[in-house]
Amino acid sequence: MSKLYGVPLSPMVRKVLLALEIKQLDYELVPVTPFMKPAGFEKISPLKKIPAWEDDKVTIADSSVICEYLEDRYPEQALYPKTPEEKARARWFEEYADTAMLQVLGTVFFERVAKKLINQPADEDKVQEILQTKLPQICVYLESQVPETDFLFGGVVQLADIALASHFINLIHAGVQIDSAEYPKLAAYIDRIFQHPAVGHRIAEDKKVFGGK
To answer: I want to staple 6 with a disulfide (CB 3.0 to 4.6 A). Which of 2, 11, 50, 174 is the partner?
Structure first.
């Protein structure tokens, strides 16, 4: 059985989970948190980061590397567009999510949610500064990029959409919603992704961690 190492609340792990679920691939989730890694984990993930992946062919780490491997090995239910130009643009959105969005939205999630899970107080001043100065920059950019209908590359959710959505899921968990009056295209785009069965399932599974149904 293939193994995915990590925890679903991590947006990077969630990205791989959604890729696996869209491709309908079997896997075992091995819980590894950023705060507590098992002895010898560096043999699986040399940078000691999650997620990591292990199957009958490879042992690899990094969400983007894992997703690209899954796409190459299991091309059914494609996660990338076909043309070189669109593939490059898709990889850019994934990189934007994994860097700019992780730094900003990830900090809000860490302060309001992750710290609560480990019984530490949130730095709400830091959260408010991010919400007032940094989050709007991301929203303005994405408002200019997302389509008015469907998804980034047509009528099917692909990896670029998943990468963006994974961070917005954590933002929702942190009690923050995108202002639909100020960013109507972005808010509608996020709603469309959240309605995808695999994404909806992930959100429901997350809520179980918080004691919801």
So the answer is: 50
